[in-house]
Design goal:
This protein is of the alpha/beta class. It contains three helices and three strands. It has a three-stranded parallel beta sheet with strand order 1-2-3, covered by helices on one side. Helix 1 crosses helix 2.
């Protein structure tokens, strides 16, 4: 089960995806494998940092993402509406533009 107390950490690794609302059933297994690989990479990148999924929970890819994330039972999830998601993406992009990361 997710350790929600860990969210008191000063850091979280936020993970979000964007995808189509109409996932073809034949594509579902490949999408799930790709999501699992993403989650494994995020966990390996920061094994001691709490993971937080951000999603609008729209039909299709968003709900597939949320379902796979919750199946892992080691992370929390936050649902956002479209305006919140857009604002979050803008903040992230502004932060990347202003950073010295090369």
């Amino acid at each position: 089960m997710a350790n929600y107390a860990a969210l008191q950490s000063p850091f979280t690794l936020n993970v979000a995806v964007a995808g189509h609302r109409d996932l073809w059933p034949a594509d579902q297994p490949a999408v799930e494998r790709a999501l699992d690989a993403l989650f494994d990479a995020a966990r390996a990148l920061a094994p001691a940092v709490p993971l937080l999924a951000l999603t609008a929970l729209a039909d299709g890819a968003d709900q597939c993402f949320a379902s796979r994330w919750l199946d892992r039972r080691d992370a929390a999830i936050a649902a956002m509406d479209a305006a919140q998601a857009a604002a979050w993406v803008r903040r992230c992009m502004d932060s990347l533009r202003s950073s010295d990361v090369t």
